[in-house]
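#data-curation
PF: Archiving a pair of folding outputs for the training set. Convention for this channel: one message per protein, sequence first, structure tokens after, nothing in between. First:
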Amino acid sequence: MKKMAIFAATALSLLNAQAGAQTWTPGPGAAPVWVWEGTVTVQKGSSPAFPCRVTVEVVNPGTGSTTQTQQPAVTPGNVDGIQFNAGFIACPGILPITQPFAVDYTNTGGNEAFNVRNVYVITPTPGDCAGDITNIVFNDNNPPSSGDDSLDVNAVLPEVTPGSGACTIIGNLPLRTPGAVDIS
């Protein structure tokens, strides 16, 4: 019985070690920063929704499940690693609470996602929003997934000023560079 308990504990520790040992492909030597860019719809409370162009740059750690946004960003005009840019005043600004933003990757039963931590959004209407952008779906193009390496964002950031309304961010960000990626 004692041997069975030792075997079970050893097997569990090996599984836990494997779960935290993700490999990012291509590696950081070939692709030090992964960049996604696309259009999302942003809305603050009950104000009108509007489209914004978003660029997200994530540092490729090579292995593991934690990383950060690229600082300084490689895309012109992208200062904080996440940039909202609509070309007009309605698109919110983003300020880091921590700089760069902490990013973590999860894979639960083949459902891959990123979380961006401690984001503060300056909104065109009073109240601003702050918090974590969670469950950003990573549409991995490798089996068992059949995605296109894009990110699906469907997030709600809590309001900073009570009663001003939360911020919603919804859209798809295609992978811009490198050409194809995988985390396994």
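PF: Second:
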Amino acid sequence: MHFKQTLEKWVMGTTLALLFTHAPAVADAPAAPCPPKGQQQYFSGQEKWKKVYSQPGKCSAHFPRNPEYIQQRMQISGDEQEMHYHVYVADEDRQAVYMVLIAAYPGQVDDESAVKNLEHFLNVLLSQSPKNKLVSANLVQVQGYPAMDFFIRNDNVYFRGRAIQANNTLYLLAMECESPNYQEPHFVFFIETFELHN
């Protein structure tokens, strides 16, 4: 797995998806259990993962090691406004890559638009390759905000994640690996220990 190529692919793909995400919503997201706040044991060695706080994103996440950080501003086409995004990426023994992407839209995204934005975001991610196959997608709520859990497969590569629309900020938590390297407890730990801080 080529770490730098994966990073560039994710940033480009998700940035394209973010630029095309604007539409009214059609349904409310059902409630899902809140992430556990205790010291639940997901797998042996989880205590070695690094808890990282994002001041601009007002959130925290656990990574297998200290992540690389990218900050970017992008002009929205046909508009003078900018979209700001922050990306944190770390690999786990060069076998899986974990990413948190935080993108702040100009203006506000109301609750009615949030679910439609998530659905459109997923559709744009899927369209990045003709080999992308959607295995599952479920609308949930995370800390009171609409979110979508998804699983995309491209041949023997898994791309699993959760997108959260919190007001005008989209949070993408994602993991990519080849299927033999997939470790469900590691992915669940990554997703469920993510927290938004007000």
